[in-house]
Amino acid sequence: MKENQPSRARFGSKFGVVMAAVGSAVGLGNIWRFPYELGMNGGFAFLLVYLLCVLALGIPVMLAELVIGRRSRSNVFGSFKVLSPNGKWHYLGVVYVVAAFIISSFYFVVAGWSLEYVYQAVTDQFSNRSPLELSQAFTDFSTDALRPIFWTIVFVFLAAGVILAGVRKGIENISKVLMPMLFVIIVVLCVRSVTLPNATEGLKFLFYPDFSKINSSVVLSALGQAFFSLSIGMGCLITYGSYIDKENNLLGTSVEVSVLDTLVSVLASVAIFPAVFSLGINPAKGPELVFITLPNVFMQIPGGYVWSVLFFLLLALAALTSIISLLEVITAYVSEEFKIKRRTAVFMASALLMFSATLCSLSLGEGSVLQLFGMPIFTLFDYVSAKIFMPLGGLFIAVFLGWFCSRKMVFDELTNGGSLKTKAYDLFYFLLRYFVPIAILMVFINELS
Ligand code: TRP
To answer: Could you tell me if the CB of 436 is within 6 A of ligand 1?
Structure first.
């Protein structure tokens, strides 16, 4: 194997590996998607189903990606070439790069919105607006032709700066600082939220165990959420895996990352819903919850200025570390496969992304012609990546490692050449070959129908 490529970047420490992967996993999915699903789908009962999905599906696919990455020491395209030199699997690698590009395009736009809201929070622009005005302000802003693009471009520069600084000095270092910071912010917001009057109403909404709500579609939506939240199914963690040194216990890393990601999702729920309920506001979903409902909430609680700044900062930081993982997938592919300097690859990828993110942003404008299949390309990109690329991507990763790579290689990688031993490896292999492909196929078919 290409174990001795002196020039290839490596993460510097175990803590750095976990923080970088948590940085990728913790993002908009945790902060605006999970809380709502938890509350609407049976509270504690949903949480149990979700945990099961993370355990039985999320951890195996994450581990599979890390194994593929570390074994091949290559980008998503190269990794399939190294592990299956005569197969056609590397074409799948190109699909992953395209998927990373598509996700980044709309994710950059929302990330840009979060910067605008950091700016608005810092300049205290929420306080003198009525709920209706806040709602109108968001619509005006997100459909504006220039302002969101400005912030999106700022975000591209930020992400490109981190990637240019390199795997260790950029991605790893920034994750080591930002992730603990994000954790502190979210805990502080939780404490604020649960100490508001009537906060128990929100906690009841979130955690009341309503097992009668659990049906097959709820199970499948928990699966989908786990998938998106853990950043799996797209080769993101193949790329990060390729920077992990060979002493790392990959199973341990996958478990830690999954636990932390889930913890952040639950904490985000606790930070948001008790506050929303305390004011008797109806919980909304998606952009509306984060960009309209929450500013409303902040303005009505004591110290709202500080909380709003903290919250939007949290959102922007979470988005930044997620997006750099997507940009790294593209950068590693372009620079390694086309043998060009990393710096040039970052410039090329960023320029292209600025262009496609701009199109995504403009597509939300009223009467925009940037529509395909009857929806704005922003919505189309979101739909295609969440419902088609990611489930199929995860399925192929499981099938590739479970059925097309040798069992000996997989176990060699899991046990670090025989030095680690646990029965969990047999369970993992079983899940990878049978349970994961079948479960994902079920999600896929359900989501399309
Ligand atoms: N996990 C991130 C979130 O929860 C989103 C994300 C970042 C992602 N990188 C990814 C999703 C790669 C799928 C694949 O917001």
So the answer is: no
